[in-house]
Amino acid sequence: MNQDEATPDHSIDLHGQLLLADPTLRDGLFHRSVVLLAEHSATDGAFGLILNLPTGHLVGDLLTDDTFTPLRKVPVHHGGPVAQEQLTFSAFWWNHEQGSLRWSIRISAEDAIAHSQRPGTLVRAFIGYSGWSPGQLENELRGQSWITTRPDPTLLGKIHDKSLWSQILRDLSPFHRILAEAPENPQVN
Fold first, then answer.
1. Enclosing domain of residue 96
2. Has residue 4 been placed in a domain?
3. Which of 20, 100, 173, 175 has the most beta carbons within 10 angstroms of its beta carbon?
């Protein structure tokens, strides 16, 4: 079998984890990205959203119908390179009893409005999403394209822009702190 072919690894379960792009991954949208893996299985592949790539737009800039008025100030983010013609809503909150991040992905505007009224819930709009076929993400992990970690309760209170990548990376270990603080292009120094 060719080493580049996707092969499932049934021992890896990344559901609910964050993927931080390795500094060497300079591929467009994924450069210094933080991806929440909302779904992952060896047989179905993986689905996630880039959390730290704001478009600079708010929902009100894109959707002017009165239905969306309560969501007009919700930031719009690039969710990934797949289905970039689609705008969807998602909500994120921390479940203190379970000690884990919870979410509702691809929800209706009505559900997004309801979630936005719950204290501690972060509502975002996303253009596109990130997806991997079965075995593809596992191969990328073997190629060290991604660093995995579990989200912590401070995630939702942080600014979700490119600085999120270095903030999370910096807290993982002394080695990761060096990666986070290294210049983006060391050859320029």
1. 18-181
2. no
3. 20
Paired with 147 in beta bridges are 20
d(CA 20, CA 182): 15
What are the structure tokens assigned to 92, written together?
Answer: 């994120």
Task: Provide φ and ψ at 136, rounded to 5°.
Answer: -65, -50
What is the count of structural domains for the chain?
Answer: 1
* Predicted TM-score of the model (pTM): 0.88
- The pair phi, psi for residue 70, each rounded to 5°, is -65, -15
* pLDDT tens figures, 52-92: 999 999 999 999 999 899 999 999 999 999 998 999 999 99
How many residues are present in the chain? 189
- Classify residue 12: in a domain, yes or no: no
Query: Rounded to 5 degrees, what are φ and ψ at 50?
Result: -75, 125
Q: Mean pLDDT in the chain?
A: 89
pLDDT in tens, 106-120: 999 999 999 999 999
